[in-house]
Amino acid sequence: MEALACHEMDEGEILNESHPEYPLFEGVLYGGRVSTAKFSKRLSCSIKHLPIRLKFHFEYDTLKAVENGITKDPTLVLDGKIFLEGLVQAEDITKAFEKLIKEGI
Description:
With 105 residues, the chain is α+β, with helices and mostly antiparallel strands. It has helices at residues 33-47, 62-67, 90-102, and strands spanning 14-15, 24-30, 53-59, 75-78, 81-85.
């Protein structure tokens, strides 16, 4: 099911799931429940129009975050690398993913 409106994403949800031809990225969203909820909503708004699929999980455990080098709440780790830190604006999320696509996924 593809969500057309901006929404708070669910654990394990795949954004743009109806497009199997798009590359799939795996992500972990570290942080508190409120900040990760806000970030996931911005994320759904920011990249739903891009040719990319994103599946991610939430990690609320501060100790696990610290063990993985996470210092800001929230932080999106994409394919094992820190991708976005802090509650960045939707426009910045879009730009970061556009750059990722342009650089050849």
